[in-house]
Design brief:
The protein is an alpha+beta fold. Strands 1, 2, 4, 5, 6, 7, 10 and 12 form an eight-stranded antiparallel β-sheet that branches. The chain has a four-stranded antiparallel β-sheet with strand order 13-43-42-41, with no helix packed on it. Helix 4 runs antiparallel to helix 7. The protein is globular.
Length: 764
């Protein structure tokens, strides 16, 4: 993983302070020497039973910004598949800095370690490395080499030490303030004395006002008014942004005039290509495979008018590309051009003469095609490839091409597959499943770039190559693949590459490639049991897969993935099931916002106009301006191998609105008010239930209705009963305190009291 370098960073000296165990020939001090060809130059534990660890002591207190793990020159079963790193000023008081894992290869890996608070980096004197899992599940742990980088400048370190000392002191006082206020009016004088004498406030004054209104004065009407004002002033906007999306599918069905033919919109296909023009809000669709032949028609869909238009029935006749599938397209909004590269050819049509990699551009304004290269391989570009990916860097007018299978004149196996267009079933009747291009002699293409103004190609790296820019080598190799996703973020200047298939290996890794520096940033290494190389990442990630479709929104810093074929590691076959994932670059977290695992034809027949059936070899584009995805066609898979789809869908991702959030707050407030009344006066509570609560319940929603009906049971609750898990002192004040805590969770952390409770920190 590439880390941001600082001008004053240097290698930090350390010693091995202590360790859990070691084998006699593998002393922990050996990790201070980088000898990748020496199998004995490593620390190795004498068991894999936890806890195993190494504690390093820096020669001087330092700000550690990165840790690099060196490796043996070959793959090794003792390499760390999963580990954690802790740091701190004391060996007995450290915080988690990193949770990650190493690839089982020979390439050193660097990880960022900086732990920040309010812009200050935490200084460390001790660093603890805790192995959790080796690549060989029953083997001991080995660490070959460790290098720490950062700063030990006394002036910087002293300033940061002072800040963290004051920060912990302040947080300790805030925890005490929270504890005393929670204890009720009898501790009010203690709370006020501590606040006045320290000059430290528990929270933002707005939240203190809410506490006084709700908890001290029990003014529920004013509490609702406060929350309404907070919502409309945007104080809860960050909470709304953190909420997961709700998907809304809508089938786009265009009306047909009587007697009108189906040629008014594209026919059934898979392995086609689509791209979207953000200027004119137009989707372009070209080519594909209809189950029996490749197609060469070109279409456009104008989003504002909701209309299809056929631009060409046969692009080859008009000087454009021949019929094809498994090709790729990208659109240059600045130049008003569409570029297309690659195609699949069946074995019987392959010969040295027709394996040229033609490269075309379509001029949107004139409707004309231009052949840029008759064969890109002869001018420094890729050979003829299929199931690759291409992306456009509009700022630098550069196209990036990565991966794909190289077509050769040598006849492949009869089980060969065009992933982008659909499965070709094995002609061997004894085959138990589909074989997806898994011949070991498969040749995969590396990474290339094409500069549009100069018309020149450049090879960035071959398969398993290391990108080199101006003589500077990247830190990681790049493994080529097919059926993957690749997206470009213009602000970050990075290509994001995810999943795919590499011969018989089904990939689930995720990394970013900086197009300016050629640095590779590994986001995760492809192990579902290993979290990202950042301790804040969510462990839920999409399943191992290929032919999934992905889009990106650079404005929201989000990546979207619609599933295709996925591979269950516990089974031999593949499956096609619907799921939609969102990756937040800001939060470093995946969320599955939609999943439908139904597979029966009868079910999907009923759902045909409500949501799309599972598929692969489909195409998905995204309109950044209106935040809507558009899906067309694809292959539904077994049991009808030649069937292709022609349905057209839009997908809108919706988050809770301010009005919905305010309604949620009012419901929380009124539910608590009702329960408080139920404990005091049954008739008043019943009247409140039938009026104030009834009017804000969505009675058309079955779940809301059931919750409303359950509230009536509070009227018959024995006052002597209480929740044994809540502990003592449950009364009106403490109940309102809990409601205040729940409402506070909607506000940003910098406005609220600490989330932890002092009493929960005490060991039992």
């Amino acid at each position: 993983m590439a880390c941001a370098s600082h001008q004053n960073d240097k290698i930090l000296d350390y010693t091995v302070h202590c360790f859990s165990s070691c084998l006699s020939n593998y002393a922990p001090e050996k990790i201070q020497e980088n000898k990748p060809s020496d199998q004995l130059s490593r620390w190795s534990s004498d068991t894999n039973s936890p806890p195993q660890f190494l504690v390093l002591k820096l020669n001087r207190c330092s700000v550690i910004r990165s840790i690099t793990f060196g490796k043996y020159e070959k793959t090794h079963v003792c390499n760390l598949k999963k580990f954690k790193v802790y740091g701190g000023m004391s060996e007995n008081n450290m915080v988690e800095l990193l949770e990650g894992g190493l690839l089982n290869d020979s390439v050193p890996e660097m990880f960022a370690l900086t732990h920040k608070k309010e812009g200050f980096e935490m200084p460390c004197r001790y660093l603890k490395i805790v192995p959790l899992l080796s690549w060989g599940p029953s083997f001991n742990f080995s660490i070959w080499f460790v290098e720490l980088r950062g700063e030990d400048n006394p002036k910087l370190v002293k300033r940061n030490v002072q800040f963290f000392h004051e920060f912990k002191e302040k947080e300790a006082i805030r925890l005490c303030l929270k504890h005393f206020r929670q204890r009720g009016p009898s501790f009010a004088s203690v709370y006020e004395a501590l606040r006045v004498n320290t000059g430290i406030e528990l929270e933002d004054p707005k939240l203190t006002a809410l506490h006084n209104t709700l908890v001290l004065n029990a003014d529920y009407a004013a509490t609702e008014e406060f929350m309404a004002k907070a919502v409309h002033e945007g104080l809860l906007d960050n909470h709304l942004l953190r909420q997961d999306y709700t998907p809304q599918w809508k089938r786009i069905m265009l009306p047909k005039s009587e007697g009108e033919e189906d040629s008014s919109q594209p026919g059934m296909r898979g392995g086609h290509q689509m791209c979207i023009d953000p200027v004119s809000e137009t989707i372009f669709l070209f080519g594909g495979w209809d189950g029996t032949q490749d197609l060469s028609d070109l279409w456009q869909f104008h989003i504002p008018s909701n209309t299809w238009k056929k631009l060409s029935s046969n692009t080859e006749v008009e000087g454009g590309p021949s019929a094809r599938s498994c090709h790729k397209m990208c659109l240059d909004p600045e130049g008003r051009q569409i570029f297309t590269l690659g195609r699949y050819l069946d074995n019987q049509y392959r010969s040295a003469d027709n394996l040229k990699s033609d490269f075309y551009v379509y001029h949107i304004e004139t409707g004309l095609w231009t052949l840029i290269n008759e064969d890109t391989a002869t001018v420094g570009g890729p050979q003829l490839i299929f199931d690759h990916q291409i992306c456009m860097d509009s700022e630098k007018r550069t196209i990036y091409v990565f991966g794909g299978r190289i077509l050769t004149a040598i006849q492949g196996s009869q089980d060969e597959t065009r992933l982008g267009a659909g499965i070709t079933y094995s002609t061997n009747s004894s085959a138990a499943s589909v074989t997806l291009g898994a011949e070991m002699d498969t040749v995969l293409s590396g990474m290339f770039s094409f500069h549009i103004p100069s018309g020149s190609w450049q090879k960035i790296c071959d398969d398993l190559g290391v990108p080199i820019l101006s003589g500077q080598r990247s830190s990681s190799i790049i493994r080529a693949r097919v059926g993957h996703s690749m997206l470009f973020h213009p602000g970050l200047r990075e290509l994001f590459i995810f999943a795919g298939q590499r011969r018989r290996e089904y990939l689930n890794d995720f990394f970013a490639f900086n197009v300016d520096t050629y640095q590779v940033r590994v986001i995760w290494n492809g192990d579902n049991n290993v979290t990202n190389k950042s301790k804040s990442v969510h462990v839920s990630i999409p399943a191992t897969g290929y032919t999934q479709r992905a889009t990106i929104d650079p404005e929201l810093d989000e990546i979207y993935v619609l599933s295709g074929l996925s591979k269950d590691k516990e089974r031999r076959d593949e499956n096609v099931q619907n799921s939609f994932w969102v990756y937040s670059l800001k939060r470093n977290r995946w969320s599955c916002i939609y999943r439908n695992e139904n597979t029966g034809d009868q079910y999907w027949s009923k759902m045909q106009n409500l949501e799309p059936c599972p598929r692969f070899a489909h195409q998905l584009v995204y309109s950044v301006s209106n935040k809507i995805h558009y899906l067309f066609g694809g292959n539904p898979g077994k049991p009808r191998p030649k069937l292709r789809l022609d349905d057209f869908w839009q997908l809108k991702l919706c988050k809770p609105t301010k009005e919905q959030l305010l309604l949620q707050c009012r419901l929380m407030i009124r539910k608590h008010r009702f329960k408080e009344l139920a404990a005091q006066n049954t008739m008043d509570a019943l009247d409140y239930l039938q009026t104030s609560l009834h009017e804000i319940i969505d009675h058309d929603d079955p779940e809301s209705t059931r919750e409303f009906q359950k509230l009536a049971s509070e009227l018959f609750r024995d006052p002597s009963e209480k929740d044994v898990e809540s502990g003592p002192d449950i009364g009106p004040y403490h109940g309102r305190t809990e409601l205040f805590d729940d409402l506070s969770a909607f506000f940003s952390n910098e406005l609220t009291q600490p989330h932890l409770n002092l009493i929960d920190l005490l060991p039992l």
